[in-house]
UniProtKB/TrEMBL annotation:
Keywords: Cell membrane, Electron transport, Membrane, Translocase, Transmembrane, Transmembrane helix, Transport. It is a multi-pass membrane protein. It comes from Candidatus Ornithomonoglobus intestinigallinarum. The gene is rnfE. Its EC number is 7.-.-.-. NCBIfam families: PRK12405.1, rnfE. The keyword Cell membrane applies. This is Ion-translocating oxidoreductase complex subunit E.
Amino acid sequence: MKKQTAAGVFFNGLIKENPTFVQLLGMCPTLAVTTSLKNGIGMGLSAAAVLVASNVIISLLRKLIPQKVRIAAYIVIIAAFVTMIQMLLEAFLPDLSSSLGIFIPLIVVNCIILARAEAFASKNSVLHSAADGLGIGLGFTAALCLISSVREILGAGTIFDIRLYGGNIKPMSIITLAPGGFIVLGMLVAAVNFIMRRREDKKNG
């Protein structure tokens, strides 16, 4: 089996192994914070920063961490970077920090971060681990931005707090609620997988 390049690893995480639309990981923050595009961008980039940093450190230390305590060690490393991100948000973007609330600290136990640490960073080089973290992180960010854009435009009638509709058109407020989140997510997952399957069929055909 041919070994992937760093670029291949990056694009694989971004598209083929997209954590939201393909692997269906991290559903709790995905549904909870995507009521506005600002929240989607903030949550996605925060998770991406933690992914890249933790992947690099875990890859560097992979031969030094004892097998029996590897998960605990990963959580400690991830928690350190999450704490840094939380403190930076509180210092420079307090409104965003308040809006995201508990979901920033919960990045520590996000299954996307732990899965990449265990499945990839602990077994691969620093360069490939960094590329994997960046690809998965930006794939997660792109998915959150797409979901939150649809929910904010249809459910609130705004984008970045700029009103889009006139007085005669009322937004569908249910889209900003939990049922609307499931509906939008399901439709986008179906659309993305349909497009990817069509492309695979064309390549194979």
